[in-house]
């Protein structure tokens, strides 16, 4: 075992207590093989120690430099297929997601561009990946991570980004979609919140903007949209998790999307992804009045979750927001629908409460895979029913 | 690896209402959906925590069919889940609703809202289905002295899943240990739970069910979000005793609500929750890790 050059951080002391081992890159495959062959339960605490040290150094020096690496080898060992991406088996911090996006663009310059649609309250860039096979196409929007504690969603967003570049040109159904529509993917829709969940409070949901006259910070970005704003289904108290904010679109994280959607002018589908509850919902949340094309949206949802369930049997419920989960005013897809984006949906990903927000990392990829099937159904329908 | 050695005791299915204290649980006939055809049937509601029938009602009101995928039915099923866990949970037994099959609602003037819900459920440790469960959940009308819902629930499948080998082993390990167990952030941010912390997490889920049951109403949906910390305490009797600080997630308000609970358990008896204390609403709480208690005999 000496040749593996293992550096033991926490020695074995008792059969029930964990051992922490720092494994050099070259030995990774062997160590993993040994652990798996002996059915020794293990997990990765730090997937790239050097990156962590670099980040710390970078933060201390306040200069920006990220060593570019390949998205296939991102942070690690080897991947064989998309499904085995080690990086995507972890919940990774913001700087790694930013680096991932840059690498994806660098590797796929004819397909992917990174747009900056604005800045968060704490001046973090709000990035959207645009996947496009040609000019002047209608757009299909997907966002993840608008509520920062819903970590499986940002992780799924990363997986979707990689899936898109792999499937275009290889998967017939998806290639047909991207040949007709651009995909716009905002992976970290609330970067201030995401950073905060990593550094301070794992259960943080809102933005990080202070509220004048209150010691409580933040606005619920999914109650801040101009749809039923001010009505029941949101709080007027800055100390509450569903605080709507002082006015509609007061949060830059929301306003940036509003401005982008309006200036784009040709977005035909809009999906906002949350966790948890295992639901697929269409508007409205703020009112019981059904949307005009409810039968179509209801049937499309039915088909989408049937396809989602086909992979691992994961059961979703579906319906309008207000009947399926609760009344919510100022919500994203109520606004997008009222802008004329007919195919507006919101997902609540795994699970149904057992782990809740703290979904284990080993469920990231299965969740992303099954969700993708649901997304494909909606994207396909949108492409076939452009308006 | 958390090896599951679970055997189902086949015949006895579990009944939530014990008509006479001290008697063995009766064998029950699985409730059928045809109860809807018997509008004059007497219904016995069991007060949470007691074994005597507390309320007898005659059903005469019209019954409204509910969409099982909409939230009212699901919230009622969640309440029944909390009831099952409070009654039958252990560090190796944790029940979850899988899917709501059907539900009805009856508004009873002067009393409250009575839900009848049929749902499939599963025990999560052994990953074993308990088949269809049928529950009556009465949310009392606001303004009365009753705030907690009253629940009666029984399931088709065996709730008396035999996890006694693991329960005994866990019990002996913690009783015999010289250093009291402590834990923080279970699961951690990444959803990881150390194997030796898993029964403490499940016990937290079961103990939290007492609180979640009591706190539930038609406008809430509770889940255990995380165990902030747990400390084993010295106990005067043969029970294991723990001080827990748990984070509950309430879905409708999206709030994280902190509770401190004193929890006791031994394999023979069930879980008991003493001194549940809701912590003041803390908008941005960062909790310190658990430390071993200074005086082993003094709970916090």
From TrEMBL, chain A:
Cofactor(s), names only, from the UniProt record: Zn(2+)
Question: What does the record give as EC number?
Answer: 3.4.17.1
Q: Does the keyword Secreted apply?
A: yes
What residues form the catalytic site here? 348 (proton donor/acceptor)
* Keywords from the UniProt entry: Carboxypeptidase, Disulfide bond, Hydrolase, Metal-binding, Metalloprotease, Protease, Secreted, Signal, Zinc, Zymogen
Q: Where in the cell is it found?
A: Secreted
Write out the GO cellular component annotations: extracellular space
Record SUPFAM superfamilies = Protease propeptides/inhibitors, Zn-dependent exopeptidases
Assigned protein family: Belongs to the peptidase M14 family.
- According to UniProt, the name of this protein is Carboxypeptidase A1
Automatic annotation (TrEMBL), chain B:
Output a single Gene Ontology CC term carried by this record: extracellular space
Tell me which Pfam families the record gives.
LXN (PF06907)
Span of the signal peptide: 1-17
Gene Ontology MF annotations: metalloendopeptidase inhibitor activity
Q: Which UniProt keyword terms apply here?
A: Protease inhibitor, Repeat, Signal
Domain Cystatin LXN-type as annotated: residue spans: 62-161, 182-291
Query: Is the Repeat keyword given for this protein?
Result: yes
PANTHER family attached here?
A: LATEXIN
Q: What family classification does the UniProt entry report for this protein?
A: Belongs to the protease inhibitor I47 (latexin) family.
Q: What protein name applies here?
A: Latexin
């Amino acid at each position: 075992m000496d040749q593996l050059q293992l550096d033991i951080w926490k020695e074995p002391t008792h059969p029930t207590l964990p051992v922490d081992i720092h494994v050099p890159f070259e030995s990774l495959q062997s160590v993993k093989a040994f652990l798996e062959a002996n059915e020794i339960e293990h997990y990765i605490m730090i997937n790239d120690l050097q990156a962590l040290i670099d980040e710390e150094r970078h933060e201390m020096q306040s200069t920006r430099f990220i060593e570019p690496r390949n998205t296939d080898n991102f942070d690690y060992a080897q991947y064989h297929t998309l499904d085995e991406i080690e990086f995507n088996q972890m919940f990774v911090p913001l700087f790694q997601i930013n680096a991932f996006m840059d690498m994806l663009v660098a590797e796929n310059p004819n397909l992917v561009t990174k747009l900056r649609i604005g800045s968060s309250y704490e001046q973090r860039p709000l990035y959207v990946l645009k996947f496009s096979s040609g000019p002047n196409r209608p757009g299909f929007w997907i966002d993840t991570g608008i509520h920062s504690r819903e970590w499986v969603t940002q992780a799924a967003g990363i997986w979707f980004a990689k899936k898109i570049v792999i499937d275009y040109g290889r998967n017939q159904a998806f290639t047909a979609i991207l040949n007709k529509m651009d995909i716009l993917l905002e992976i970290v829709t609330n970067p201030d919140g995401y950073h905060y969940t990593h550094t301070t409070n794992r259960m943080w949901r809102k933005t990080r903007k202070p509220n004048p006259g209150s010691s409580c910070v933040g606005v619920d970005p999914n109650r801040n949209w101009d749809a039923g704003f001010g009505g029941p289904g949101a709080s007027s108290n800055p100390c509450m998790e569903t605080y709507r904010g002082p006015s509609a679109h007061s949060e830059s994280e929301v306003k940036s999307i509003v401005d982008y959607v309006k200036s784009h002018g040709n977005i035909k589908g809009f999906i906002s992804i949350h966790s948890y509850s295992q639901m697929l919902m269409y508007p409205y949340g703020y009112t019981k009045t059904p949307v005009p094309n409810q039968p179509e949206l209801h049937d499309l949802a039915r088909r989408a979750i049937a396809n989602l369930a086909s992979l691992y049997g994961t059961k979703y419920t579906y319906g309008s927001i207000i009947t399926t989960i609760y009344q919510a005013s100022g919500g994203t897809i109520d606004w997008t629908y009222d802008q004329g984006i007919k195919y507006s949906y919101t997902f609540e990903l795994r699970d149904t409460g057992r782990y809740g927000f703290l979904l284990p990392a080993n469920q990231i990829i299965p969740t992303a895979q099954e969700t993708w099937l649901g997304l494909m159904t909606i994207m396909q329908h949108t492409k076939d029913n452009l308006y | 690896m958390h090896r599951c050695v679970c055997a189902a005791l086949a015949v006895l299915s579990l009944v939530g209402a014990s008509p006479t204290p001290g008697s063995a649980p009766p064998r029950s006939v699985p409730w059928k959906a045809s109860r809807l055809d018997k509008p004059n049937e007497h219904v016995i509601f069991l007060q949470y925590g007691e074994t005597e029938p507390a309320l007898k009602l005659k059903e005469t009101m019209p019954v409204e069919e509910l969409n099982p995928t909409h939230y009212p039915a699901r919230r009622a099923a969640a309440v029944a889940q909390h009831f099952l866990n409070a009654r039958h949970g252990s560090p190796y037994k944790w029940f979850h609703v899988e899917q709501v099959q059907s539900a009805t609602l009856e508004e009873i003037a002067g009393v409250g809202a009575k839900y009848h819900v049929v749902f499939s459920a599963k025990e999560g440790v052994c990953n074993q289905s308990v088949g269809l469960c049928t529950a009556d959940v009465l949310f009392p009308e606001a303004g009365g002295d009753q705030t907690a819902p009253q629940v009666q629930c029984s399931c088709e499948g065996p709730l008396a899943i035999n996890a006694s080998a693991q329960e005994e082993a866990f019990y002996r390990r913690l009783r015999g240990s010289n250093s009291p167990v402590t834990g923080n952030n279970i699961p951690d941010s990444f959803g990881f739970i150390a194997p030796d912390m898993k029964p403490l997490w499940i016990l937290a889920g079961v103990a939290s069910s007492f609180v979640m049951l009591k706190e539930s109403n038609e406008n809430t949906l509770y889940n255990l979000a995380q165990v902030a910390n747990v400390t084993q305490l010295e106990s005067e009797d043969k029970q294991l005793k723990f001080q827990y600080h748990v984070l509950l997630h309430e879905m409708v308000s999206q709030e994280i609500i902190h509770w401190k609970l004193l929890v006791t358990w031994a394999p023979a008896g069930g879980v008991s929750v003493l001194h549940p204390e809701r912590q003041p609403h803390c908008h941005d709480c960062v909790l310190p890790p658990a430390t071993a208690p200074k005086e082993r005999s003094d709970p916090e």
